[in-house]
Amino acid sequence: MTTEGPLNVARPDDERAALLVWMKDTLRPEYGERPLKPRREPLHELISTILSQRTTHADEEAAYQELRMLGDWDAIIAAPTEQVAHSIRRSNYPESKAPRIQATLVALRDSPGGYDLDFLRDLPVRDALKFLTDLPGVGIKTASLVLLFNYARPVFPVDTHVHRITTRVGAIPKMGEQAAHRALLKVLPPAAPFLYELHVNLLRHGQRVCSWHDPKCGVCVLKSRCDAHAQYGDQVPAWKG
Length: 241
Ligand code: SF4
Hints:
GO terms for molecular function: endonuclease activity. This protein is an all-alpha fold. The protein has helices at 13-31, 42-52, 57-68, 73-78, 81-87, 94-109, 125-133, 140-151, 160-169, 177-187, 192-208, 227-232.
């Protein structure tokens, strides 16, 4: 199987910005307008996002529900780590996630706001991101999800679908997921509803059309402006992110 070569290396920022606006507008008729409203409590979002890494949504949810059966957050901190790992066994890598979850909860418990994250609503975005990414188990994607989904802050979570599609289309050059957060945020409008809709609809598009191994370019609404399709036609190779 062939693999992707370098895509869209040279493209000015204003073109990248216009391309992202076009992608958002083009995906809306396919997947709908997506009003921004929190799907779960902030700390639930934070812990569930840690559980979601390399895990299906159903297993993530099952792991979270069983974790909460251990008791309140203090009880989860106090529980033996092996017991926490067992409770989240439906999630992949429970042995590494359990101590990260406990360490994150300890850091929150000992912070001025405790388990209440609502102060993030008013903190400057940069400081809010720093607070969350300073937590032991929290990376930029998780921090961005909590800030955007729960507090309508203008940040852009880059998951595997967002990363793959924005790279294939040519909104960013090929780079790692961490760097993609910065590169995309630099050219996206600082408007939470826009960022939310684009994120959610790219996720849908990645699940249904632009999959990592077998993108269905023939039925893709982004085809007319997609660098990968221009380069490979309907034989876009499997993604190696
Ligand atoms: S044209 Fe193909 S590679 Fe490009 S976004 Fe659509 S499905 Fe993905």
